[in-house]
């Protein structure tokens, strides 16, 4: 599994022959890429409808969209996603097969709305757990699993459900504070999830979410989180194996 961070919350995940683009937003200072520079994904996954997560979704409308039914319907009506290609509307707790990947949707503690329009519902905000094997209650040591937490605060489901049952090996956690978890809550999340690899995201994009990464490192140590911290440069790829 290959994980490429394009800054903010934008990730490009490759599982076998299948590619998934999460929360496409390229107007951020960590990436040098334009949407046209990115290989066309097979699937676009949207955690919620805020501008800094859906701004460039329409640039990838040939892909199959995976999101809440409300957000899929809006994208089909407004962003050029065609019914025939798919809108794979799903909801919290569900798992769908996306080519070589299995995608499970879990809730995120956040607000929602489409394109920052509070009058248009995008359903519940979410995070995604992406695996190369179908999740079951039987632990699979050979699987590779990546958790994109979306925009969220710390929530007990990370400790009680996602960590012990969905078993992510790696997670991208928002750390920028103000709108999401900050360093101390994200560090507790990393500990609860029992991760091997920790990737910070959703930070340093604009002034309210600028942080000192040293603070996150200290909080990880204080929480006793055992995973390795990877502070990726924008457009950098990590291979999870």
Main beta sheet strand tally, sense and closure: 7 strands, mixed
How are helices and strands ordered from N to C? EEEEHEHEEEEEHEHEHEE
Helical segment count: 5
Q: Could you please say which CATH topology applies here?
A: Metallo-beta-lactamase, Chain A
Give the termini separation.
7 Å
Name of the CATH class: Alpha Beta
Proportion of strand residues: 25-35%
Q: Helix content range of the residues, please?
A: 10-25%
What shape does the CA trace take? Answer: globular
What count of domains describes the coordinates? 1
Structural class: alpha/beta
CATH superfamily: Ribonuclease Z/Hydroxyacylglutathione hydrolase-like
State the strand order across the main sheet.
6-5-4-3-2-1-14
Poorly predicted regions are none
Mean pLDDT: 95
By DSSP, the count of extended strands is 14
CATH architectural group: 4-Layer Sandwich
Q: How much is the radius of gyration in Å?
A: 16 Å
């Amino acid at each position: 599994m290959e994980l490429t961070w394009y800054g903010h919350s934008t990730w490009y995940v490759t599982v076998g022959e299948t590619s998934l683009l999460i929360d496409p937003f390229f107007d951020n200072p960590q990436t040098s890429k334009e949407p046209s520079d990115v290989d066309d994904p097979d699937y676009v996954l949207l955690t919620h409808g805020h501008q800094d997560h859906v701004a460039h979704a329409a640039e990838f409308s040939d892909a199959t969209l995976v999101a809440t039914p409300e957000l899929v319907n809006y994208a089909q009506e407004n962003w050029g996603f065609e019914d025939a290609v798919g809108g794979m509307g799903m909801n919290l707790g569900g798992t769908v097969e996306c080519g070589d990947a299995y995608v499970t949707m879990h809730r995120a503690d956040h607000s929602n709305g489409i394109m920052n329009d509070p009058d248009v519902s995008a359903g519940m905000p979410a995070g995604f757990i992406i695996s190369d094997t179908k999740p079951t209650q039987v632990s699979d040591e050979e699987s590779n699993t990546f958790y994109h937490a979306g925009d969220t605060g710390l929530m007990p489901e990370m400790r009680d459900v996602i960590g012990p049952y969905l078993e992510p090996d790696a997670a991208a956690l928002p750390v920028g504070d103000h709108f999401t978890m900050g360093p101390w809550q994200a560090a507790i999340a990393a500990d609860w999830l029992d991760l091997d690899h920790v990737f910070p995201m959703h930070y340093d994009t604009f002034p309210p979410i600028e942080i000192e990464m040293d603070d996150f490192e200290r909080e990880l140590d204080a929480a006793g989180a055992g995973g390795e911290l990877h502070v990726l440069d924008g457009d950098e790829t990590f291979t999870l194996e």
